[in-house]
Design a protein that fits this description.
Shape: globular
Radius of gyration: 22 Å
Low-confidence stretches: none
Distance between the termini: 12 Å
Strand content: 15-25%
Mean pLDDT: 89
CATH class of the largest domain: Alpha Beta
Number of helices: 13
Largest sheet: 7 strands, parallel
Number of strands: 13
Helix content: 25-40%
CATH topology of the largest domain: Rossmann fold
Order of helices and strands: EHEHEHEHEHEHEEHEEHEHEHEHHH
Length: 393
């Protein structure tokens, strides 16, 4: 099968969305399919060593060249700084009224590409960024004979996305999302709860909607040492803006307990302070993060305060043999669903997002850990998820 995989953002950009994209592409290649990747131009795309290290060197990368306006100023110029501040305010206002990101301008450049002279059995547009689906819309309107079926993959839905602060009427956002869904042959979501809610919102198109898991690229087998009379090291690695994810119970709980050391690495609009028990850092390079992952005894995931998404950390931690605790949050209905889904893997330990539940889980961790299987989850590896996508066709 010939597959056109469109990401809009450069495939070599470091992001959780691209980790998923690379894993899926790698899975298609492993199954013997031909894959052409269409994405924004990046200087790193010409570096074949990067593609080899990602395991997708056999994919054909087609960059879309475009120019994004940049601001160059003298940092010592007060007027220039004021201009930047004003432009940042304007940019923030613009994005609060724009459903799609700046990569939407790529659609204007698609007519310059000769890639559509080929025929593809399957076209996949994968967000985020969600502007990628506008590229698919352009191709459907202008190059419909270049592909067989169109599959849309959503890391986050549009209307239900809690990470955006759009000031637009919900009816308008729903209209735009419905329009995109209507054009696709298949629509994929990476959370079973999101799938349920999307089917409720757009019942006319529920038959084309499916759930797939986020795949991992490779297993991570660590030399886990038994915890004996030393501080238990636990690690939370990810962003934690308080309007999306509440880490205060974890932070406060760890600070109350004597035998714990929490490594909290990620960006936040309200970052915590480091303490005797908690080491706080913003995002760190990938190689540094891997080193600290090796050292911790327990990996921690925290669910969102609201919304329907399963933490992507579940799928990434599924590749490891590290013990994992997931802290459940949200309304009671969502908490119950997420708890049942996460525990169905017989791989993760689950607790509530309050100090008492977190303390109790950690204090009784060794006994709880005997009830789960700390091995990589085979059904979530890149080849099996790629097979799952092919079966949906």
């Amino acid at each position: 099968m010939k597959i056109l995989y469109i990401t809009s953002a450069p495939i070599t950009t470091t992001s959780s969305a691209n980790i998923c994209n690379i894993a899926i592409i790698k899975g298609f290649l492993a199954l013997g399919h031909d894959v052409t990747v269409l994405c924004a131009h990046s200087d790193s795309l010409v570096n074949e060593e990067i593609l080899i290290s990602l395991g997708i060197e056999r994919a054909s990368i087609v960059p879309i060249r475009y120019s994004r306006p940049s601001i160059t100023v003298n940092n010592n110029n007060i007027k220039s700084k004021r201009k930047i501040s004003a432009k940042n305010v304007v940019r923030k206002i613009y994005h609060s009224f724009s459903i799609f990101d700046h990569y939407k301008i790529l659609a204007k450049r698609l007519s310059e590409l000769n890639v559509f002279e080929e025929y593809f059995d399957l076209m996949i547009t994968s967000s985020d960024p969600r502007s990628v689906h506008l590229l698919g819309e352009w191709i459907q309107k202008h190059k419909r004979n270049s592909y067989g079926k169109w599959m849309q993959l959503y890391g986050d839905p549009i209307l239900l996305d809690i990470s955006t602060q759009l000031k637009l009427p919900k009816s308008y956002i729903r209209y735009i999302e419905k329009k995109l869904i209507r054009m696709a042959d298949k629509v994929l979501y990476v959370s079973p709860l999101t799938l349920i809610e999307q089917k409720k919102i757009y019942p006319s198109y529920s038959d084309k909607m499916h759930f797939i898991s986020i795949p991992y690229i490779k297993e991570k087998i660590f030399d886990n040492k038994k915890i004996i009379n030393s501080k238990i090291k636990i690690g939370y690695f990810g962003d934690y803006n308080p309007n999306i994810r509440n880490l205060k119970p974890l932070y406060d709980g760890v600070n109350k307990m004597k035998n714990l050391q929490l490594f909290l690495y990620g960006n936040s609009s309200s970052p915590f302070d480091s303490t005797t028990n908690v080491t706080v850092k913003s995002r760190v390079p990938f190689n540094e993060l891997e080193e600290i992952e090796k050292q911790v005894d327990i990996l921690i995931g925290v669910c969102n305060l609201k919304g329907t998404q399963v933490p992507a950390k579940l799928y990434y931690y599924a590749a490891t043999n590290k013990p994992v605790i997931f802290i459940i949050d949200g309304n009671e209905q969502n908490k119950q669903f997420l708890s049942e889904y996460i525990t169905s893997f017989n791989r993760f330990i689950v607790c509530e997002n309050n100090i008492e539940s977190i303390e109790d889980t950690i204090m009784n961790f060794e006994e709880l850990n005997k009830t789960v299987n700390n091995s990589p989850i085979e059904k979530l590896n890149f080849i099996n998820v790629a097979k799952e996508i092919c079966n949906i066709l």
